């Protein structure tokens, strides 16, 4: 079969790191990290999913995990724009939280059972279990929010953003304080156990220890961009970097050690409740389990074949949850490296197996990462394409479209779909979250639109 002439994903850059200005290029550091992360995300989504997993409900990579203090409830956030509250006792979803218009990058429990979610849409939402909409919404960030942290006394919520700032939200009165100083994307934030300082890390090669309540910062320079931070119960700061190394810092800013977890970037961190273990997922799909005191890698969790984007320890200090690129959440025994339950990868299932040999289906394969063909499938990052033709853009019930799309007059037909891929989403549907992509061949565009007519009709 002739390969389709599809130019897949031109990742639009930014004039300033983390700021959404179409047509500009990022700084070289941002470009490398963004491109590697973005391409691995898409490739992992296109890979056939495992047949079984413990918690299945998300339609995209699980970008964030948080465990309630009592260890009974899990909160997850995903690239599919949703957060899910899970019962760990029954391994079932108790509530799906839909509010954000872009990926949910960070989640946290904020006390009294309440929850916080934050997204690439720059918003932070506070939820009460069982209520369909947030109690409070904070919209001060001008870029994606990448991390959240709750203070030990539960009164403050810190958010790290790609707008180069950290914000501290006062939950009792809704007041906000902005901490400025980072020169590039801020990727992670964590409160010290005593609540007297806050640590943020970013692409600018710095960890900043903000002294509270004053807000002055001690700056610790690092040799590599930082993607994640966690603080142990005894106050030691642990950072995860793009060079695959963990670095340990004292509360007063002295680097006291490092551990090589991988040659690939570390994307998240979690420390067990007793402070003994560190879990560090790596973009290559492995998770390093590190003995924090010994400064050594105990073992590597492997076998999933796709990136792990988030990790969280249960209160027992031994059970680790991983949020994976296939939208599943899995359990591991961090002490032995053994899987718990049905984590093992099963026989791959091709979502387009029924269309084997169909040229249009092969072109559509690049779209499987974000779109389903049927309403019965779990929603992915984009809206389902079931019943596509004849539907006005931005009108599908239950999916949160941008205001720009909802205001357009486009009705999806074979002609408009063809035009979308001829000139690209940025030009045809400005304001879309869809990655920029083109299909140069008119023959290939016709094959795709004919396939969609067959596969999406009700």
What does this protein look like?
The chain is mainly β. The protein has two domains: 115 residues, Orthogonal Bundle (Cytochrome Bc1 Complex, Chain D, domain 2), CATH 1.10.760.10; 286 residues, Methylamine Dehydrogenase, Chain H. The protein contains six helices and 31 strands. Strands 2, 27, 28, 29 and 30 form a five-stranded antiparallel sheet that branches. A hairpin with a 5-residue loop joins β19 and β20. It is globular and about 60 Å long. 47% of the residues are buried. The N terminus is likely disordered.
Keyphrases for this structure?
6 helices; Methylamine Dehydrogenase, Chain H; five-stranded antiparallel beta sheet; Cytochrome Bc1 Complex, Chain D, domain 2; 2 domains; disordered N terminus; mainly beta; 458 residues
Short description:
The chain is mainly β. 12% of the residues lie in helices and 36% in strands.
Helix-strand blueprint:
Layout: E1 6-10, H1 28-46, E2 55-56, E3 62-67, E4 73-78, E5 82-87, E6 92-98, E7 104-111, E8 114-119, E9 124-127, E10 136-138, E11 145-150, E12 156-161, E13 165-170, E14 176-180, E15 186-191, E16 197-202, E17 206-211, E18 216-221, E19 226-231, E20 237-241, E21 245-249, E22 255-260, E23 270-271, E24 277-281, E25 287-291, E26 296-301, E27 308-313, E28 319-324, E29 328-333, E30 339-340, H2 359-364, H3 403-406, H4 414-423, H5 425-428, E31 436-439, H6 442-455
Antiparallel strand pairs: 1-31, 2-29, 3-4, 4-5, 5-6, 7-8, 8-9, 9-10, 11-12, 12-13, 13-14, 15-16, 16-17, 17-18, 19-20, 20-21, 21-22, 23-24, 24-25, 25-26, 27-28, 28-29, 29-30
Helix pairs in contact: 4-6
């Amino acid at each position: 079969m002739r390969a389709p002439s599809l130019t897949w994903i031109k990742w639009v850059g930014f004039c300033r790191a983390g700021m959404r200005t179409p047509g500009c290029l990022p700084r070289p550091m941002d470009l490398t990290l963004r491109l590697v992360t973005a391409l691995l995300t898409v490739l992992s989504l296109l890979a056939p999913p495992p047949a079984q997993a413990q918690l299945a409900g998300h339609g995209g990579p699980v970008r964030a995990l948080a465990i309630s203090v009592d260890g009974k409830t899990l909160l997850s956030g995903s690239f599919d724009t949703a957060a899910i509250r899970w019962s760990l006792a029954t391994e079932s979803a108790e509530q799906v939280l839909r509010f954000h218009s872009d990926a949910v990058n960070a989640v946290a429990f904020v006390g009294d059972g309440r929850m916080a979610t934050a997204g690439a849409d720059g918003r932070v939402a506070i939820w009460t279990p069982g209520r369909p909409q947030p109690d409070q919404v904070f919209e001060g960030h001008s870029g994606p929010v990448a991390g959240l942290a709750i203070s030990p006394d539960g009164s403050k919520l810190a958010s790290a953003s790609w707008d180069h700032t950290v914000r501290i939200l006062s939950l009792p009165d809704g007041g906000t304080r902005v901490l400025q100083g980072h020169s590039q994307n801020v990727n992670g934030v964590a409160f010290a156990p005593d609540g007297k300082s806050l640590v943020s890390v970013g692409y600018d090669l710095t960890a900043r220890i903000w002294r509270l309540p004053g807000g002055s910062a001690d700056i610790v320079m690092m040799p590599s961009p930082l993607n994640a931070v966690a603080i142990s119960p005894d106050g030691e700061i642990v950072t995860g970097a793009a060079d695959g190394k963990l670095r340990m810092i004292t509360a007063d800013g002295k680097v006291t050690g490092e551990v090589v977890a991988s040659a690939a970037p570390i994307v998240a961190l979690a420390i067990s409740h007793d402070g003994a273990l560190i879990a560090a997922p790596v973009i290559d799909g492995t998770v390093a389990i590190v003995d924090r005191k010994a400064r050594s890698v105990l073992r590597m969790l492997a076998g999933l074949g796709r990136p792990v984007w988030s990790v969280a320890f249960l209160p027992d200090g031994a059970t680790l949850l991983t949020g994976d690129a296939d939208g599943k959440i899995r359990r591991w025994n961090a002490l032995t490296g053994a899987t718990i339950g049905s984590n093992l990868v099963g026989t791959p299932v091709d979502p387009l197996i029924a269309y084997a040999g169909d040229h249009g289906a092969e072109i559509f394969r690049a779209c499987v990462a974000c779109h389903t063909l049927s309403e019965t499938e779990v929603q992915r990052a984009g809206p389902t394409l079931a019943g596509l033709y004849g539907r006005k853009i931005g009108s599908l019930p239950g999916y949160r479209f941008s205001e720009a799309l909802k205001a357009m007059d486009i009705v999806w037909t074979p002609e408009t779909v063809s035009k979308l891929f001829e000139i690209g989403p940025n030009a045809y549907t400005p304001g879309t979250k869809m990655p920029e992509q083109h299909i140069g061949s008119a023959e290939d565009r016709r094959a795709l639109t004919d396939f969609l007519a067959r596969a999406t009709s009700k």
